[in-house]
Amino acid sequence: MESRINVNNSVPVEVTNKKKKTWDWKVYWLEIFLGIVFLVITFLFFLKCSFNWIKPLNSELWAQYGDLIGGLIGSMIAYISIRLLVKTLQEQMRANNDVFEFNKECLKTNLINQFESNFQTVFNIYANSLANFKSIDGQDSGSRYLHSCVSEMEASSAKSMVADYSKNVPIAKKTFDNFYTNNRYCASTYFSLLYRVMQTIDEAKVSDALKRRYAKIVRCQLSEDELLLLRYDALTLNGAKMRSYINRYNLLKHLPLTKLLEFAYWQSKLKPQECNELDTILITLSKGIKEIFVANDKEIFQCPTSSNRYSIVARKEDNGKSLYLEVVIEKKTGTDSFCLNSMSDNDIYTLLQAYIRELLIYGSLESYSTEKKLVISKEIVTAKNAKKVTIWVKATSENLLIVSQRQLDNPRFS
């Protein structure tokens, strides 16, 4: 990966030349002015003098004339000398500043080149470690083997998952522990190298924009299966150090919620196309909630849907200490094609509870909050023409709800 850095001097050449020409013209006109002054004084002196070629010259008068001319011209020359000295010092300081800026840019370029070299080395070792995953018979390896492992994890955990997210979490963790135990040698190396890749990015002495750019490159290399395994590894003690990098660089951004083992119960109620639609809605809803918690002038987010029966609204209250999530289901004749149509009212209610816990607790790998720091309440109201399912959550302390890393990066939340 080549780095393209434009190294520019602090003062453009044309600007420096323009200033130099301006100064030269000032000195030139000053010299002309002094010459004119000298000629005028000389003319006036001779005009007032009467010459007698027989008598000797008045030495006292000529001495006064010499003192006048010498004092005037000498003062002017001294002034010009000082100005030239000041100008020389200014040019020297400007040249030194240009050299400093140039060296600074060279150092910046060298640091970027060194970072890219280190990144490429570590990343290549990490990428090659994926091939170490192999099935016992040796037929599957790499990404193909991981996909089969994840499929087995989903199948085994789906039998135990219920409509209670909190109960599903330990089941999902245990399922991952079984995978890690069966693949300890390869898995430990793989996750350690991925951690080193992110550590190389985060600790590099380069701009934050360049760090994010390389973190996105790493994120694009991860399949859904790898993202899933990375998430559960970060929830263990072995992957605890990776949590900050995952949150800071949003590495799990492209992991669908219905792909999580904890959501297996609700996933079983949906067809594949409906799962994709639900993922899209939840991703859009998460973005909207994160936006209103970062912005000062936004309190409500209306999540767009493809249905005219369902209305999903998120609302921030208590200056960011509470979050209300409402789903209104209107009772209209006929049905439209929508993912939630396959679920009962109770399934929708428990799904919203699971989503809230994932958003505020486990989605950030328990870095922002925990179950003990939140109070989650619910309410189902049935009216004549509609039914409203409401979930609201409030922090137990005076702290604000944290839903994204952007809030922590904002001085308003520090």
Structural notes for this entry:
- By secondary structure, this protein is of the alpha+beta class.
- Helix content is 59%, strand content 10%.
- The chain contains 12 helices and 5 strands.
- Strands 1-2-3-5-4 form a 5-stranded antiparallel beta sheet, covered by helices on one side.
- Strand 2 and strand 3 form a beta hairpin.
- It is elongated and about 125 Å long.
- Mean pLDDT is 85; it is low at 1-11.
Q: What are the defining features of this structure?
A:
disordered N terminus; elongated; 10% strand; 12 helices; 414 residues; alpha+beta; 59% helix
Question: How would you summarize this macromolecular structure in one to three sentences?
Answer:
With 414 residues, the protein is an alpha+beta fold.
Break the fold down into its secondary structure elements and pairings.
Elements: H1 13-48, H2 59-129, H3 142-158, H4 165-182, H5 184-203, H6 208-221, H7 224-234, H8 243-248, H9 264-267, H10 272-294, E1 300-303, E2 310-317, E3 322-330, H11 345-362, E4 374-382, E5 386-395, H12 405-409
Antiparallel strand pairs: 1-2, 2-3, 3-5, 4-5
Helix pairs in contact: 1-2, 2-5, 3-4, 3-7, 5-6
- Separation, N- and C-terminal Cα atoms: 36 Å
The backbone outline, from C-alpha atoms, is elongated
Beta-strand fraction estimate? 5-15%
Question: Uncertain runs with pLDDT below 50, 5 residues or more?
Answer: 1-11
For the biggest β-sheet, the strand order reads: 1-2-3-5-4
The pLDDT mean sits at: 85
The helix content is: 55-70%
The total of helices stands at 12
Biggest sheet layout: 5 strands, antiparallel
Radius of gyration over all CA atoms, rounded: 38 Å
Q: What structural category do the secondary elements indicate?
A: alpha+beta
The helix/strand series, from N terminus to C terminus, equals HHHHHHHHHHEEEHEEH
Total beta strand runs: 5
